[in-house]
């Protein structure tokens, strides 16, 4: 009985060490991707870009931030601002009261565009959990497959979203990503393929082919294999124009 207990404890410790090792390895790989992409420079920066005819601007200063989008509707300039102080909408020169439900929607929309524009920026945050899944081949190249989740505290409004990043074992760059998110009628899935890589002020920017599964009841972790098998549908293109970095 004594030896059985020792064996069980040894197996438990081995399993815990293996899980810890996977977390450490995943964090190291993501940190390498962050380093190669140059996005740490964004900690103190001003960037601007146009996405789908709307101008976006991000001002970051070592933890303080202001994420904005600027639209023109019916001759009025509309500024949606998301900062450490929350969300604010300004129409022309006046702050406008927005119902909480709409403020949440606008805030999420602004944050989402800025989030994807500068990936893998922010994936080294304290609220980010990273787990190494496996090594896979996509289109003749080898990738580390990393799962990313977020703590509720510090993880933002969409902390329940789950991401997977495919980091090229050779270049250390994120070439593919996938994520699940809540919809009114269930869970939505997306898979993105990076293209049009360019470095602006030593910071990597990419555009994406944005795919969704052709069939229902698909698992997030299987999207890479479905992509290889041409079982994903091209939904849209995520293209950033007139990118500027100061």
Tell me the number of structural domains: 2
- Physical arrangement of strands within the biggest beta sheet: 6-5-4-3-2-1-14
Shape: globular
Structural class: alpha+beta
What is the helix content? 10-25%
Kindly report how far apart the N and C termini lie.
Answer: 67 Å
Any low-confidence stretches, pLDDT <50, length ≥5?
4-14, 16-20
What's the tally of helices? 3
Please give the structural blueprint.
Elements: H1 2-37, E1 44-51, E2 54-61, E3 64-73, E4 76-83, E5 86-91, E6 94-96, H2 100-117, E7 128-138, E8 141-150, E9 162-168, E10 174-183, E11 186-200, E12 203-213, H3 223-228, E13 232-238, E14 241-245
Antiparallel strand pairs: 1-2, 1-14, 2-3, 3-4, 4-5, 5-6, 7-8, 8-9, 9-10, 10-11, 11-12, 12-13
């Amino acid at each position: 009985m004594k030896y059985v207990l020792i064996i069980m404890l040894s197996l438990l410790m081995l399993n815990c060490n293996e899980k810890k090792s996977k977390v450490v390895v995943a964090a190291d790989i993501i940190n390498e991707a962050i380093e190669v992409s140059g996005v740490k420079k964004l900690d103190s920066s001003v960037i601007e870009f146009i996405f789908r005819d709307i101008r976006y601007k991000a001002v970051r200063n070592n933890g303080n931030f202001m994420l904005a989008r600027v639209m023109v509707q019916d001759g009025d300039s509309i500024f949606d601002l998301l900062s450490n102080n929350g969300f604010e909408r300004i129409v022309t020169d006046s702050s406008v009261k927005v119902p909480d439900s709409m403020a949440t929607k606008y805030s999420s929309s602004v944050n989402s565009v800025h989030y994807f524009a500068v990936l893998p920026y922010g994936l080294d945050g304290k609220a980010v959990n990273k787990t190494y899944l496996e090594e896979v081949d996509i289109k003749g190249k080898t990738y580390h497959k990393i799962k990313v989740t977020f703590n509720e505290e510090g993880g933002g409004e969409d902390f329940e979203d789950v991401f997977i990043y495919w980091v090229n074992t050779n270049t250390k760059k994120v070439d593919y990503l996938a994520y699940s998110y809540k919809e009114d009628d269930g869970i939505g899935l997306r898979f993105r393929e990076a293209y049009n890589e360019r470095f602006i002020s030593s910071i990597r920017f990419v555009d994406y082919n944005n795919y969704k599964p052709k069939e229902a009841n698909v698992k997030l972790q299987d999207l890479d294999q479905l992509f290889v098998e041409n079982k994903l549908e091209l939904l849209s293109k995520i293209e950033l124009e007139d990118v500027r970095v100061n």
